[in-house]
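Example (one chain per record):
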Amino acid sequence: MEILDAIITVVMICLAIYFYLDKKHSYWADRSVPHVKPELFFGNSRTLSRTESFAMMFQRFYRELKGLGPIGGAYLFTRPVAVVTDLELLKCIFVKDFQFFHDRGTYFNEKDDPLSAHMFNLEGSKWKTLRNKLSPTFTSGKMKMMFPTIVAAGKQFNDFMAENVKKESELEMKDLLARFTTDVIGMCAFGIECNSMKDPNAQFRVMGRKLFQSSTGKVNRFLMTVVPELALKLGVKTTKSEVSNFFMAAVRETIDYRVKNNIQRNDFMDLLIQMRSPDEHKSDGDLLSFNEIAAQAFVFYIAGFETSSTLLTWTLYELSVNQEIQTKGRQHVQEVLGKHGEQMTYESVMDMKYLDQILNEALRKYPPAPVHFRTTSKDYQVPDSKTVIQAGTRLFIPVFGIHRDPDIFPDPDRFDPERFSPEEVQKRHPYAWTPFGEGPRICIGLRFGMMQARIGLAYLLKNFRFSIGEKCTVPLEFDVKSFIVAPKGGLWLRVEKIK
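Predicted structure:
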């Protein structure tokens, strides 16, 4: 009898779980919103098992849901999320109705993991205040002040490449490019010469690699995604303690050294120090606490080295496959430098318009952030529809899917910088290409990232010729373990010095 009771209890528990999950997964059907059919336990989150990249998963959702309405539904485990498939609605979310969508809804833990409380993650008035404080840091005038620092790193990278080409005909460019961008952001965000070009095991480079090695297990990822409130109570962190301790110490040492010795470098850290609060434990008006300064320096570092190096990696891959575009890009660099006395000046680099077209096309095919996130602050009536997006609903904007939509970009797998000629850009919907987002939450470091990429690419094209190496597979596979659209296993290219 006891065995029978136990069996009945187990069956009842299983039925209760089944009906609970079934109810959770009927959210979009109950609202007559087209949706991707969920699985019982995972919802539509199979990507967390590392069999499909985040980019490819949301591209699949986009293709399945496009044309069925302005939004579609999906489920991250039991949590319903909206997938935006209409560009006019995207315009409303980014700009027109921004007051409903000012937060990203990404997890951060200010108490236990202060480096996670940076401007990308912050919400509401905290985000707005910080954005207003830091926006002057990224004006074209400030970029011009930092330009010589980036060019110095570019020259160092160029010399390093020239030396290595003498020894080896094939180079693994993904790591080399990450070392270049690490040196740039190390100098501009911390005023520290990382020297990772010469020493691949330099501390800043090592910590950069650790940042993008998964530090959260499946249970913690589940908690952060589905029940972030519980994750906060449990003190779940997104940053490894070793990485956090290193960056907090680096910021502390940099500030103390500069203040003590009255040093100014016209870089990010200078601008952050000028905003330092007398009481380092709290912010006051336009002033920042120490933790706030550290968090912003940290996000500058993450965004500054990883996204730019990934962009340059994909760009070199495509230029190696498409030699005629590489030749045209090189001729363009040579012509522009010829007009500017062969000098890599701010004006000459800004005049390299065709490089922008090449980089923009690489950002189309391989947007480093394949999905943009938003969360609704209050109930939102979708224009020209009966659908209401409830407050607290997370929205996913499948950038990778939109950028590879053949109705928007014909023959989307073809690499064609002419898509970004002024005439072609005018023909497209203004929100068809959004690698940096748009509106008030557009990437604040856009100018810096593009300037860094443009300088790096100009040096490379001017002095080297690239082609596919024997160790390189075509097409390159995506790294399914990475949220960022990154190639699996690096990029091996044959590199020749141009005499």
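Caption: The chain has a mean pLDDT of 87.
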